[in-house]
Amino acid sequence: MFQFFQYNWQVRDEWLTLLKDIPPDELLKERVGGVRSILYTFFHIIDVEYSWLRCINGKEDVLFDYSDYQTLDRIQYLSNQLRTEISATFPHDVPIDKQVFIPWDSSHQNVTAILHHIIAHEIHHIGQLSIWARELNLHPVSASYIGRKF
Amino acid sequence: MFQFFQYNWQVRDEWLTLLKDIPPDELLKERVGGVRSILYTFFHIIDVEYSWLRCINGKEDVLFDYSDYQTLDRIQYLSNQLRTEISATFPHDVPIDKQVFIPWDSSHQNVTAILHHIIAHEIHHIGQLSIWARELNLHPVSASYIGRKF
């Protein structure tokens, strides 16, 4: 499972690099589908990943305010900051069938379902970015897993 | 790993059902990004999954001709047919670090990288479909892993 997180992080970083010279209004522009903008896609991916991993680790959710993350630099800062914590606390040794409490819908989910969910969530949204990138005449970051080193 | 295949297959089937009343010209229409059309996206996902799994199982690749699969019914038929074989021959017991030969680029890859690759490949392309679905005023199939039963 952790290899998929490494894949997602590497792809995410490549996207943040690819987009660094795109004008802010294009990053914030409301688009059709997905979560409506390129910048918000990153915020959403990062926020969702962190929230679910906090659940697995039995920690309270932390709410981030999107208005504090309106540039790619701020997004990259948040991504790096949370990744450090996630890497240090990743549930490598938590039993995959352990049930954990999900405060935002008062349910319980098992660890393996949550990890699958986080992984698929980011890959799905990155697929959406790849369509929007073409609208900006950019060549999208490769989604290939084969050929990457972690 | 197999759970991700079950997720991808369930999501794929839900997409094929969602799109069954969409006019053929919309399915075949060339779009911006991805692999250019909705119908070809399915063909590509199915073909790629099968080819890599054939490599893992040491079997020769089978080439399919897209011109034989120009309707959703034909795509669903291909998907079902190959899924039966894939389910029966899934490499549950193959060592994940086993190196297998990839004929189309004369390289070797290990089984775990190939399985990660297949999984990410389909989720990525389905993310692209979700943008195109909005262009057709459709509500996309949920990409959520949480809440599904396999």
TrEMBL record, chains A, B:
A divalent metal cation binds at H44, H121, H125. The keyword Metal-binding applies. InterPro entries: DinB, DinB/YfiT-like. The keyword NADP does not apply. GO terms for molecular function: metal ion binding. Keywords: Metal-binding. It holds the Pfam family DinB. SUPFAM superfamilies: DinB/YfiT-like putative metalloenzymes. Belongs to the DinB family. This is Damage-inducible protein DinB. It comes from Cytobacillus kochii.
